[in-house]
Amino acid sequence: MSLARRLKIAGVVLLIGGAGYYAYRTQYAGPREKLLASLAEINADINRLDEGMRDQFEVRKRLKAFGVTTLGQKRDEVEHWFRTSLSTIAEGNGLGQVVVDTGAPQGVRNPAWRSKSLPTSTKRQLAGRPDFQQVLGQVKGVGTLEQVMRTVAAVQAQSWVHRFEGFSITPAGKERDRFTLKLEVATIMTPDLAVETKSPPPIVAADRGADRLWGPVVAKNVFREPAPGAASPVTVAAAPQVGAAPAALTSPPAYGDWLLTGVVTGRTGTEAFMRNTKTSEKVTVAIGAAVLDARFLAGDVDRAVFEIAGKRFEIRNGETLASRRQLN
Questions:
Q1: Are strands 96-102 and 269-276 parallel, antiparallel or unpaired?
Q2: Can you tell me the distance from the alpha carbon of 280 to that of 219, in angstroms, rounded to the nearest whole number?
Q3: How many Cβ atoms are within 10 Å of 146's Cβ, its own excluded?
Q4: pLDDT at position 212 over 70
Q5: Coil, strand, or helix at residue 79?
Q6: DSSP one-letter string for 95-110
Q7: Adjacent-strand bridge partners of 282
Q8: Residue 62 is inside which H or E element, if any?
Q9: Region of 160 on the Ramachandran plot (φ > 0 left; ψ -120 to 50 alpha; else beta)
Q10: From CA 134, how far away is CA 200, in angstroms rounded?
Q11: Cα separation of the two ends of the chain
């Protein structure tokens, strides 16, 4: 076979092979790759939707739980339960002259409408309507410093108090033993999440240990000023000198006269605040110092340990040394 003929046959074979490959790429391989790529995108979208659905279920669950903490579906019942419950807490903690006011519901928009990363259409939808309504409430009352602080702690503990705006405490009268409390809080109204309410919301007690925060303030009454020209009402008992002879007692120690009002730990160490129930004398007792023959050993916010005649005893805030309990 001549060379020319061979070249001609090879050219025909190459032409047929090229045409076949072109047909394979255009009619099968290319469309197949596109379909596989499209299928991968669809699967990725499905996975994202599945994740979104799982998040959505969790969000719905949390929203439902939040709805239980609201005070009702209608404005009048929300305002009624809000005022009634705040008044109940204030009066229940001993405040007098209680006045409760509530404002009109105010719409609160989703803050995401200000986001620069969201599409304009989405931001427009978010800005077009509020996510929920906020109702502001104000409580005023008069009582002792302890009653005021207990009221603040109790209001903070309620699940239907969704925002604590602030409070102020103002001494009332020259003796500064009465105080005016002004407390501002907010509750959220969400009719689409709230459950039907036919009874007042539950009022729970303040968190255990809350008195550890305000106890020292009550014990010390930082609002009270000493009388002009009078000696400071608080004295610091000095630690007994080593080897000093104990003072002779002509009568049994008056343990029932000395009341523990607080224990504070600061830069100078731990100190116990004691008050004489008969004379109103106040004494700050450092570690190692004594009231009568009771030597202060240790303590925390609401508890103090004293040593009397070589034995260790414990008392708590509001108790006198006569109420002491012996420790093992």
A1: unpaired
A2: 13
A3: 19
A4: no
A5: helix
A6: -EEEEEEEPPPEEE--
A7: 234, 275
A8: helix 30-68
A9: alpha
A10: 19
A11: 120
The pLDDT, as a whole number, for residue 140 is 93
Q: Could you tell me the maximum CA-CA distance found in the chain, to the nearest angstrom?
A: 146
**Which residues does 248 contact at the CB level (< 8 Å), separation at least 6?**
none
Of the pLDDT bands very low, low, confident and very high (cuts 50, 70, 90), residue 247 is: very low
Q: What is the distance between the alpha carbons of residues 188 and 293, in angstroms, rounded to a whole number?
A: 56
Helix (H) or strand (E) holding 313: strand 311-316
**Spatial contact of 290 and 308, defined as CB atoms under 8 Å apart:** no
Q: With a threshold of 0.70, does the pTM exceed it?
A: no
DSSP notation for 162-178 = -EEEEEEEEEESTT--E
- The percent of the chain in helix, strand and coil, each rounded to the nearest 5, is 40, 30, 35
Among 146, 108, 100, 142, smallest CA distance to 127 is for 108
The beta-carbon contacts of 246-250 under 8 Å, at least 24 apart in sequence, are 246/293, 249/293
